[in-house]
Amino acid sequence: MDLHPGDEIETLRSATAEWLAGRLPLAAARRSPPGLWDELEAMGWPVMTLAEDRGGLALDHASEAVVFAELGRHLAPLAMVATAVARRWTLLPAKCALAIPAGDGALRALDPEGADVALVARADELATVEISPGPARATIDLTTLQARVPGAPGAPIAGQKAVLHLRLLLAAYALGAADAARDMAVDYAKLRVQFGQPIGAFQAIKHICADMAVGCAVARSQLYYAACALGEDAADAAFHVLAAHMLALRAALANGRANIQVHGGIGMTDEAQAHLPLKRAHLLGRIIPPGAGILLG
Amino acid sequence: MRIAFTPEQQAFRATCRVWLGENVPAEPRPLDALDALPFDTAWQRRLFDAGWAGINWPREYGGRGLSLIEQVIWLEEYARANAPWIGANFVGVNHGGPTLIANASEEQKAFHLPRILKGEAIWCQGFSEPGAGSDLAAIRTTGRIEGDHLIVNGSKIWTSFAHVADWQELVLRTEPGSQRHAGLSWVICDMHAPGITVRPIRKINGQTEFCEVFYDDVRVPLGNVVGGLGNGWKVAMSTLGFERGTGFIADQVRIGIEVDELIATARASGAIANQAIAGDLALLRAEVAALRAMTYRNISEAARTGQPGAESSLIRLFTSELNQRVDRMAVDLLGDDIIDFAYGDPGPVSEYLRGFAHTIAGGTAQVQRNIIGERLLGLPRGR
Description:
heterodimer, A: alpha+beta, two-stranded antiparallel sheet, 9 helices, 9 strands, 11% strand, B: alpha+beta, Butyryl-Coa Dehydrogenase, subunit A, domain 1, Butyryl-CoA Dehydrogenase, subunit A, domain 2, Butyryl-CoA Dehydrogenase, subunit A, domain 3, 3 domains, 4-stranded mixed β-sheet, 4-stranded antiparallel β-sheet, 12 helices, 15% strand
């Protein structure tokens, strides 16, 4: 047993963080820089767990989860999650949108620009469908667009492990959003002065930030455990991945809300970035939300 | 990263499991400290005879000297086997003893350590005072130097097992006029010395476990000072890391078992059909899993660096509040049966009431949040 990332993963993580800070700062997250997708591909992030003989990096899920949490912290494209899963479990080489059933038989294809295939997320089985999306429109998440596409059975991806892989990466993205919200709130609480002192000196604000830190630590720990359980084919891997997914979503939503409160008036403005993690959290919360069933054993 | 244990560690787990399976007492530990004393003493002796007392103590002092991961395995198996809390021996084995190991003279160690491990000497802790709770540095109990003795006056409170203890780890002010962390000393106080009065305090669940202790010109030999006069704060802090490392592991396994039992209860009663209850139970199960993952991460970091991980304060806060959420759920599932609770009844209501201590003892949840905010997140201190 060793749940410390160690030097190799830490190097990977810090390189990812550094690249993202330069290329995808949160302040610019709403306008994806041109050519971004090709750069993300070139960094190898969609093929981290793919075998070497198929052009992948042959890393384990633990490394992948740590890196995807960094991507999530920068609200990186949602298609990265779908593409990484599709590439691991099918032979699709292209960018893959993430689709969820829309209720009327159609699909919502999320992050569809430049994608002619989508990974359909269902709790029991994933599938891929070809799409030819029309003009994209907004979602609540200001960093993600969507297109309505006709529903189709598509090509199923056999096995529960692909669903768990998708949940793991969604959990990593949610954790990233929770981390981003915590960091924004803490930074602001150190800077903003009222009543003659930084508001972070007030216990009422300090305790909100402490709870945000607890939420992140809980979600990150379970994410690491789940990534190992999945990678080691543990008998209870499904339980641990679902637990990680549930706890990361809760942290993202709670921290997203708290971040706006800590920012006060400026948190109410579109111009500030405080609302971005919460909106990402709400979108993630609608993608195969984990139910109580498997968790109750 | 990996969650699997090595074959050696798995073999060690099997050893623990076999011994515990054959030795855990069948009868439950009595609730009241006085009734429990013979039980606690016998269990400690049995642990000692088999070499399982002081699992984290160095071998040279009679401990087992287990690595951190082996301690985790032992504590997990201990809880799974439903082995009893070490009760009255808790302070000596988990706090007083390790403090002596880190700070005491060879003479002090040679006298006290074997007695603690064998369950022959019960220790209690004299830190908190009526005016020094979360703010421990506000200690006012004094030790006036007179010849080769300290003359102790004042009072301590929330002292678990004081009414059955032989010795006390006592922190008091030995420099007249000193303030806060300076001028304090950590001394070994004989609880049978003249001038000590112990008043047991009944808790809100009816249990009598902790006490108030009064000192009226109590004579403590200067030879009982540990770590030097005036160094009491440093000595007291030297072992707090333990509580934040492996101290909670058996608790964590126990609440996991409790949650599984609550799920079984809710299934049997049909309460699980209520979506809110099912959702809450599912979340508790996820949180218990995450707590283990947090501890594993912390232990993994400590195994590399030799220090408890930076997130120890987060684990502590999360554990205390999760314990209370589990206690509350158990009481919610009881329904009208909560009405029948009377002092002396064991079970969920008693645990629920006793559990309010989780977010109070050893620094309240509010103090923990201050610590997280200031030391982990770098927020400014309030003035």
